[in-house]
Amino acid sequence: MGLLLTNARTEYPRRDSSLITADPTNPLPPVIKMDFGMCVVDNTRVSTPAVIPYEKQLDNDPDWALMEGSLHFEEKSAVQTTLRNICKRLQDLEIPYVLAGGMAMYRHGYRRFTEDVDLLVTREGLRNIHDQLEGLGYVHVFKGSKKLRDTNTGVQIDFLITGDFPGDGKPSPVPFPDPIAAGIDIDGIRVVALPRLIELKLASGLTGGAARLKDFSDVVALIETLKLPRDFDTNLNEYVRPKFLELWDGLHASPLRGEY
């Protein structure tokens, strides 16, 4: 008896046609020609064609990317689905986590599109995630990576580790915090609290060079959208307060204020 393994799905059916071969005389679905990952059949991890990355799907089909953008703000996109599913799995496994990055900004009220999900966990939590989830709907982005990819949606899940440092990764006064202490509940999902989110964004921008300047623009967007007062800086680590005030003052002096 043969076993057909496929990553095809009805929710997000777009694929790069160059990666697929079809035989009109064969009733079985096309075969995706890619490196092999893992999936589960009858509770057993087995090899299966690796899912096409979500970001590649967006690049390959602009029309589908526009549709995903629209669905994102209806909370029905692949990223939103991936977020709900991974958070539910971690809650069921009792692994502490908090949502960070662009999707944390979204949950706090600044809604923009993003291609991945960022989760803050402890080092022990990451080991448990890999032990409990690898091959059960999730695969490594590449061998040895701490990142996972949802095999149904193709969306990448990035993990930030408690005790590591944002930006250039070198020690600074603002490390990634413990998810238990740093999170709040928003609509059933644990999200990094707003002061901690802004601290991490500022620390990343201060040490990450030109590649992380977008973190400063994210903070400006949060200040503008959430109408944060100037004295919000008192909620922040002293290391990042001057930069927060510089951005706040610059925004409120700008003739382009209100464009976020």
* CATH architecture identity of the largest domain: 2-Layer Sandwich
Q: Give the rounded overall mean pLDDT.
A: 85
Q: How many DSSP E strands?
A: 11
Strand content: 15-25%
Principal-axis shape: globular
Poorly predicted runs: 1-48
Secondary-structure element sequence? EEEEHHHEHEHEEEHEEHHH
Look up the CATH topology of the largest domain: Beta Polymerase, domain 2
Read across the widest sheet, the strand sequence of neighbours is 5-6-9-8-7
Total of domains: 2
- Main pleated-sheet profile: 5 strands, mixed
- Total helices: the number is 9
Distance between the termini: 58 Å
Report Rg.
Answer: 20 Å
State the gist of this model.
The chain is α+β, with helices and mostly antiparallel strands and 260 residues long. It is 38% helix and 17% strand.
If you had to describe this structure to a student in words, what would you say it looks like?
By secondary structure, this protein is of the alpha+beta class. It folds into two domains: 17-192, 2-Layer Sandwich (Beta Polymerase, domain 2), CATH 3.30.460; 197-260, no CATH class. It is 38% helix and 17% strand. It is built from nine helices and eleven strands. It has helices at residues 54-60, 62-73, 78-93, 101-108, 123-133, 179-182, 194-207, 214-226, 241-253, and strands spanning 20-21, 31-32, 36-41, 44-49, 98-100, 116-121, 138-140, 148-150, 156-161, 183-186, 189-192. Strands 5-6-9-8-7 form a five-stranded mixed sheet. A hairpin with a 5-residue loop joins strand 8 (148-150) and strand 9 (156-161). Helix 7 packs antiparallel against helix 8 (214-226) and helix 8 packs across helix 9 (241-253). The protein is globular, with a radius of gyration of 20 Å. The protein starts with 19 loop residues before the first strand and ends in a 7-residue tail after the last helix. Residues 1-48 have low confidence and may be disordered.
